[in-house]
Amino acid sequence: MLKLNVNGKQHQVDVEPDMPLLWVLRDHLGLLGVKYGCGVALCGACTVHVDGAPVRSCVVPASAAVGKAVVTIEGLAAGGLHPLQEAWIEHEVPQCGYCQTGMIMSAAALLAKTPKPSDADIDRAMTNLCRCGTYTRVREAIHAVAASSASAAAKKA
Amino acid sequence: MTGWWCASRVPKWARAPIPRWRNWWPRGGSQGVRSSQDYVRKAGAAARMMLVNAAAARWKVPATECTVERGVITHGPSRRRLRYGEVAAEAARLQPPQDIPLRDPKDWKIAGKSMHRLDIPDKVMGRPVFGVDVALPGMLHASIAQCPVFGGKLKSVDASVAEKMRGVKKVVREGDFVAVVADSWWRADQALQKLRIEWDAGANGNVSSETIAAMLRDGLADPKLPQARKVGPNIPRPTSTTPPWSRRPARPG
Ligand code: FES
Ligand code: FES
User: Fold this and answer.
1) For residue A59, which atom of ligand 1 is closest to its CA?
2) Structural domains of chain A ordered from first start
């Protein structure tokens, strides 16, 4: 039995300790927004947060997430939309959508650390692959969120 | 079609039997609707006419007394209303009209405007169901090892370790592949890695890029080729080669 904290809830799962977090989330907890693309940490489709850091859950054994806070796309903005999800809608970022939840999780972790990323910061952090080629819109939407949260902060000050 | 944008969510009209240039329905480069807009508009207009006719027939009134707005058909004099969906089944049984007048561009409501895509909100929340997300009651998953050589066959498999692994239901041995069936894909795939497989590569066992290139070179030296050159000037001359390459998508599905 592994004890996992996912999206703020405690879960007990009866799985092999080396089962990748990805498959625990998908097959045992039913969180299907987490996607399987390559299984070898190349594509980023499976990106989730573990203690706030973006990780490729296809290569993280579930046992490594015990005692940590796991967040998936389903729990990114409890009950509403994360500003990135709003920007993703506004800029119509997704095409087929398969890579997009991983993209959003990577972007959310980037903005949490670097609220106003440069293009170079984005390129460095956003190594997720998109077979549909949505990269330019991904960048646009990240900049849009950075700009609007900067102006919101300026208003408060 | 005067359908409200949402009403055209399921583009049944896109499959209407409208004659097309060479029956072509190109999808590449997001050209589908752009290059086919006349067909699409005609299909939409035809569907609207059929829906209105069906409503008019149900009310026993002339179709000319009916108007359409956002997927709702209204009979002006009696103020009766029907949604497209309510008459769709009847409309589908009518003959598609031959003479299909198109709306004057100055009256366009949707065409010519940039509309928000309807699929995006679900996609940013990870809600769409892709092939990999489909789960049926009692469903099992398989991971497959195929003979790496086309035309080869399975010689032997030692599945003694795999068969004892958690979740594994069966090891399937078949002509040119072995599959492990388990209660989840990851478990099936883990067990597959533990199989000891021997393949019989067969006649293609020694095929390589070199042998294929040599075969092509021999083909170009075929005595019948000068004859072929007279027929068409585009018979290639052996000046360069590219390796055989398979097109693979970067993701499942
Ligand atoms: S599925 Fe994890 S990186 Fe591709
Ligand atoms: S939107 Fe299709 S793979 Fe990225």
Assistant:
1) 2
2) 2-75 (3.10.20.30), 83-156 (1.10.150.120)
